[in-house]
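Cross-posting from the chemistry board since nobody answered there.

I work mostly on the small-molecule side, so proteins are not my area. We synthesized flavin-adenine dinucleotide and want a rough idea of how it might sit in this target. Sequence and SMILES are below. Is it possible to get a predicted 3D structure of the two together?
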Amino acid sequence: MNHDKRRISFEFFPPKTDAGVKRLLQTVQQLSVLAPDFVSVTFGAGGSTREGSYQVAAEIVRTTQLNVTPHVSCIGWSVSELRDMLACYKQAGIESIVALRGDAPDNDANATRAFEHANQLVEFVRAFGGFRISVACYPEFHPEAPSPSVDLQNFVRKVNAGADEAITQYFYNNDAYYSFVERVRRMGVTIPIVPGLMPLTDYAQVARFSRFCGAEIPQWIRRHMEDLEGDPQGQHALGIEIAVRQAEELLRNGAPGLHMYTLNRAEPTLRVFQQLGLARSHTQAEQYAELS
Ligand SMILES: Cc1cc2nc3c(=O)[nH]c(=O)nc-3n(C[C@H](O)[C@H](O)[C@H](O)COP(=O)(O)OP(=O)(O)OC[C@H]3O[C@@H](n4cnc5c(N)ncnc54)[C@H](O)[C@@H]3O)c2cc1C
């Protein structure tokens, strides 16, 4: 399978320690052989995570040839701080961002916010100029949305504010993605909607995330994973198998690319790409050989 026309991206989060940053940079190097269109770095509302996001993004720019796309959210700062950060990103040579509302730490209703919703942030970044803008979307709907139809309308508003691309929350039910894409196309959305994939290689961890982000793990997967409790290697292998099957089907049915939630690990993404046959270079083939 050739992925030259697909949009491939890998997501990382900023580690809390210098040793973690060092390890992450190795992970990024390992994954760079897959020639992603960009790598993204998540954002947290707390001051240290916010600085960490900038530092990691800048370090990846400094040490690789990759396009880096930092995530920026509305929470944890003022409009003028946000403007300063955009200026810093521009100065660092960054040309794209993921624009999000974000979530307040511990759901603190009084947390400082530059804006209430991501559509306002998109408008702001568009007016600031010079960035390609990705936004988030939810094939199984955002957990706070009062109804699917309201969530879809809010998504369309965000796209119309100036988004260039949408990246989905991870999901395990491809029909939810197809249905989402079909509905928003009928509502006039034409931008690429790239599915986000989270290989279930650490089932307990993903099951915890899924409880609050609204991404459902289907019963047949849960039952298989529960059956393999106490056998992390078995769960890992099943997680890869499911991700490969899911990605194959999505690409076959016209998905414009894949966004991998890497959890800062190289091996699951390398394995998935190996099994998908998305090889591009000799170096990559060598890296695969090391995996086997
Ligand atoms: C690809 C991806 C990357 C992410 N990266 C991060 C990250 O780095 N850091 C982080 O903190 N979180 C991240 N998140 C999580 C995200 O911040 C949360 O899901 C958050 O709760 C919603 O953000 P949003 O940008 O989708 O918000 P919005 O688009 O603002 O939507 C949030 C809710 O408000 C509703 N809504 C939207 N616009 C309006 C409006 N104008 N008026 C009324 N209601 C409205 C929507 O229906 C939805 O229920 C990411 C999610 C995804 C899918």
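Reply from a structural biologist on the board:
Welcome over. Reading the output above for you: The chain has one domain: 7-291. The first strand starts at residue 7 and ends at 12. Happy to explain the token format if needed.
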